[in-house]
Amino acid sequence: MVRFSPHPNLAHLIRWFEQEDEAFETARAEDKPVMLFLSAFWCRYCQRMDEGAFSDRENGALLNAYFVALRVENAARPDIDARYNLNGWPTIAFFSPEAELLAAANYLGTDDFKECLLDVYLSHRNKAAKSRPSVSAARHRPLRSLGAGSAESVLAEISRAIMALADPVHGGYGSGQKFIQADANDFLLSRYETTRESSLLDHVCLTLDRMREGAIHDHEKGGYFRTASG
């Protein structure tokens, strides 16, 4: 069971995995890096991550859309704690889908964590490096700072990539048969809160309107089916 800070936070909105095997199986299937958050329930800085970095809507949208988030308490998995603990809690570690350690850090504030996510996202997307660092090297590898301007440009690039797939008539993303893409909607909404770019909000509203009007909407009991026909 995932336990969050007892103080107000939005960390529960992140789609957390609790089992290592399931997390890496999903990462390989979806070609996403894994973010391991190794915590101790009594750790105040772990709680601050819940209240700060994990409650930031852009960070949450990035994690849900482009990462597999694995959360482990030290007492529940002492083997993982012994393997990856970086001199204390929290430990934040990033892995390739093949379980190679890419980078690790301890407590990160909201903006530093966002830069870290974008750094790992870009490295994974570009796959430019011909070799991955060893575990021992990665444990001490400093996380490259993107800078505020670079971080903003990457977020804008992600928004453009999503909007390039936006269907302006039927809503959603791509053409033909579609599945619900809640992560894309969440990311666009988080970007709208930051940029006030109306086209982002408009497309999410269009998508939700079309979903509500269509057969995928359960008009009797509420909610939405995964698929619909006819």
Question: If you had to describe this structure to a student in words, what would you say it looks like?
Answer:
The chain is of the alpha/beta class. It folds into 2 domains: 11-145, 3-Layer(aba) Sandwich (Glutaredoxin), CATH 3.40.30.10; 148-213, no CATH class. The protein contains 9 helices and 5 strands; from the N terminus they run E-H-E-H-H-E-H-E-E-H-H-H-H-H. The protein has helices at residues 20-30, 44-51, 57-66, 78-84, 110-126, 135-138, 147-164, 182-195, 198-213, and strands at 16-17, 34-39, 68-73, 91-95, 101-105. Strands 1-3-2-4-5 form a 5-stranded mixed β-sheet, sandwiched between helices. A hairpin with a 5-residue loop joins strand 4 and strand 5. Helix 3 (57-66) packs parallel to helix 5 (110-126) and helix 7 (147-164) packs across helix 8. It is globular, with a radius of gyration of 19 Å. 33% of the residues are buried.
| CATH class category label of the largest domain | Alpha Beta
Q: Give the averaged pLDDT, no decimals.
A: 84
Tell me the number of strands.
Answer: 5
Number of domains: 2
Largest sheet: 5 strands, mixed
Beta-strand content estimate: 5-15%
Low-confidence stretches: 128-146
CATH topology of the largest domain: Glutaredoxin
CATH superfamily of the largest domain: Glutaredoxin
- Given helix and strand content, the structural type is alpha/beta
List the secondary-structure elements in sequence, H or E.
EHEHHEHEEHHHHH
- The separation of the N and C termini measures 40 Å
